[in-house]
Amino acid sequence: MPLLHDWLLDAVAERGTGTTGNATAVVYRDTYLSWRGLAHRVDRRSRELEGLGIGAGSWVGVMLGNVPEFVIIALALSKLKAVMVPIDPTTANRELDMVFEAAPMRALITRPGGADLPPNSLASLSAAVRASRKAFQSKFTPESRRRLQGTLLTCSLYNRDARPAVKGAEPASVVLFTADAGGDPKGVIRTDRQLAAVASSLRETLALKAEDHTLCVVPLHHGYGFDFGLVTALACKSTLFLEDEISPKILNRLIRDNGVTFFPGTPGMFASLARVAAVKPLPIKAARFVSSGSPLAPTVADTFHQRFGVRLLSCYHTTETGPVALDRAGKDAATVGKALGGVDLQVATAPGIAVPAGTQGPVWVRSGQVSTTWVPDLPSSLRSTGVMVGRASPDGWFRTGDLGALDRSGRLTLGGREDDLVKVNGKRVALGEVEGCLEGFAKVRAAQARVVLDELGGPMVVARVVRDGTCRAE
């Protein structure tokens, strides 16, 4: 049986009947789904999708935010042994075409018009740029469009092959898109075996249980949100609280009103929460608030602990490797702690030779979580001796592309990238792509982009430009 749907059936058997009653599985604002209610909706949605021709091996794109229907569709596709492809709902049309080029999607599920003009993606652009984006014609035209029953969601069907040509790969369960070294979409293929390893590692390290209340605000379509939100909640049979509004006042209320014990967030989220007025320490024992996606400033960690009484646990996570390391005590935000259970971690040269403690070098990871297959299967743009960035050695060590140093106790301190990819609140950004876009303007002669860490606002991409004549900022 498929893993995600297997976890649902286990949760229904354990928490949907008997002395525990019918426990709550998913909460979104005023919507409450019990485990039995969730299973009923999953069965109904899977029959509907099967009737549309979606079956084992079909790749299905899902362009939704953190809403219950994301969870329902993920479990329905798992039951059908289909492949889920979560996609950012604000993906621009040209980038969406590149996703279609990489992933042989049989269907795409969106909100009304979601695949035509992503919401809020054009509001800040000039009239000329808006017109050019609207005029973009996709090469991929659906053969039909259907409205999913009981929702406003549209399912567009495409005449595509069900199975991709990825030689030697295990059957895919989910494909999580990130960015390659050039900034283009890269779909990381995850299998049931890898998802099980992620769940086991997080459950063991963080002591997660069915009684936990998980708040997921980081997007489920990102690897961080998918692993720490959906995967852990299903594997641990715990209640998942979903929200796509990151207002600090709303987050503060959700945490307090719902007794949240597990909260994966970003440094920017915790910095905004630390500035909420009249905050009292949380009356929650054993709360685990994890920070990942970009470096956690020590001042943010200290201020949050003083105001909320909870130490932030700095974490190292990538889409290809899953969770790698965690500062379990939350007392040293400058590092991301030691490797999680079941994860081997080393700092070594490009040929894979370990460097002395305290010396910075490429970060390598080996575990059952690591994915080494993706679409499209293109070579790395970074040429070097030994194993290339984003590749694994014959003995299973994966070169992440991150730079770091291990101290004598095994604690990892990250220190940038080997290439020009950076993370801004969990999303990869290619600095070279930013510079290329700026240099595409007629009155910009040259551009240089870099990341600046604002301890209150989080990481920001800042660019300097050399003008070629009069050039206004907008």
How would you summarize what this structure contains?
With 474 residues, the chain is of the alpha/beta class. It has 11 helices and 25 strands. The chain has helices at 3-15, 35-51, 68-79, 93-102, 127-134, 192-206, 223-236, 248-257, 267-273, 298-308, 431-439; strands spanning 24-28, 31-34, 59-63, 83-86, 105-110, 144-147, 154-157, 174-179, 185-190, 213-216, 239-242, 262-265, 288-291, 312-318, 322-326, 338-339, 343-347, 361-367, 374-375, 398-406, 412-417, 421-424, 427-430, 444-454, 458-467.
Structural class of the helices, strands and pairings?
A: alpha/beta
Give the low-confidence spans.
Answer: 116-126
Estimate what percentage of residues fall within beta strands: 25-35%
Radius of gyration: 22 Å
Q: What is the percent of helical residues? A: 25-40%
Q: Given the C-alpha coordinates, what overall shape results?
A: globular
**Average pLDDT reading:** 87
Q: What distance lies between the first and last C-alpha atoms, to the nearest angstrom?
A: 54 Å
Query: How many DSSP H or I helices?
Result: 11
